[in-house]
Structure formats: structure tokens, C-alpha cells
Design a protein that fits this description.
This protein is mostly beta strands and 189 residues long. The protein is built from 2 helices and 13 strands; from the N terminus they run ββαββββαβββββββ. β9 and β10 form a beta hairpin. The longest helix has 8 residues.
């Protein structure tokens, strides 16, 4: 398997001779060809493990001689079952597929997640997170464009971003009593 980060294209060489008979038996009814990019965050708060993740998955599905390529954004609330190739590819088959060139992971997050009201946006110092009257923020995570957590905050609706380099960030907010996070984009100047 080769992945070109510049073009976001994957080349995958496969066939039954590359895998063991035991693995072939495991995948009798379907064969998984794809990639997974993402981040995972886990923290122990003294009583519970709090985790969150976001994966951009690319999967080939259907007939191995004419497969479909699906891009899926998977988070803790994702509950769909992806489909896979319905049989083994022919010996020596090479698949090449590319992720959507016009959509970045950050754009996909913003389009598919609950939007947050962040102000001011763009920001240079303190950013406020608008909350409902009955909402209490448990934690705030600030992610850079590589998906790395660059700042964490507990129990506050104000985040100081003055120490961050200029750029685009994703803010993840977890409210008390809610399992997952809500996300929004923030531009730091």
C-alpha cells in the first residue's frame, strides 16, 4: 500500500496470495480495502475515562471488479455500518483511489458537526463560547489543522488563544451530561 499525501491518493496492491489462509477464512463474506485517518483523545478525570475521536475513512465497496469508493466521517455518534467489497479481488489487483480534493478534514468537521457560536471569530485573545441557559461546559479542546490537541480547558466558556500561531483551529466542546463533543471552526489571527 502506498499513500501520496500531496495528492491524497492511495494505491493498494492485493490478492489472495498476500494474506494467510486464516485471514482469508476470517473475511469469507467481505473484504476490507481502505484507509483510516484521524485522531483519538482520552483522559481520565479521576472517576471516568472521557474519550473522543474523529476518523476520515475511505472504503471500497461492492463488486471488486468495479468498486465504489466511499468517504465516511466517523465520530462517537456514528452508527452506520459501512459496506465492503463482497468478495476477494483477483490476484494482482491494484486499486487506486483519491480522497476528495476539495474537502479538508476541518471542512468536513464543520459541515457535519453541531456548530458552536464562538466570538470574536477571527480572534487574537479571549474567545467566548455561547452556551444555553441550562448548559454547563465540562471541557474544551482546541485542535490544530493536523488534529493535535494544542490546548485544553475545564469548566469554562472562555478560551485564551493569544499563545497560538495564526491559523485555522477546531474547537471541541463537551457539555455536562453529554457524551460527545460539539465542534466549530475558529480563525486565530
Amino acid at each position: 500500500m502506498k499513500f501520496d499525501y500531496e495528492t491524497r491518493c492511495l494505491e493498494y496492491h492485493c490478492g489472495p496470495s498476500v494474506i494467510s489462509p486464516q485471514l482469508q477464512e476470517e473475511f469469507q463474506d467481505s473484504w476490507i480495502v481502505g484507509t483510516l485517518f484521524g485522531w483519538f483523545y482520552e483522559e481520565f478525570d479521576g472517576a471516568n475515562i472521557v474519550d473522543d475521536w474523529l476518523y476520515l475513512v475511505g472504503i471500497l465497496s461492492g463488486d471488486p471488479s468495479n468498486p465504489e469508493f466511499e468517504q465516511i466521517l466517523e465520530d462517537p455518534d456514528f452508527d452506520e455500518e459501512p459496506t465492503f467489497l463482497n468478495s476477494f479481488p483477483e490476484e494482482g489487483t491494484v486499486y487506486q483511489f483519491c480522497y476528495d480534493q476539495t474537502t479538508s478534514v476541518n471542512e468536513t468537521i464543520a459541515e457535519n458537526m453541531d456548530k458552536l457560536t464562538l466570538y470574536p471569530n477571527p480572534a487574537t485573545g479571549i474567545v467566548q463560547i455561547k452556551t444555553g441557559a441550562d448548559s454547563r461546559i465540562e471541557q474544551v479542546l482546541v485542535y490544530d489543522q493536523m488534529g493535535r490537541v494544542v490546548s485544553t480547558h475545564k469548566g469554562t466558556h472562555k478560551v485564551d488563544v493569544s499563545h497560538l500561531p495564526s491559523g485555522l483551529y477546531v474547537i471541541g466542546v463537551q457539555y455536562d451530561g453529554e457524551g460527545g463533543f460539539r465542534y466549530g471552526k475558529l480563525v486565530v489571527e
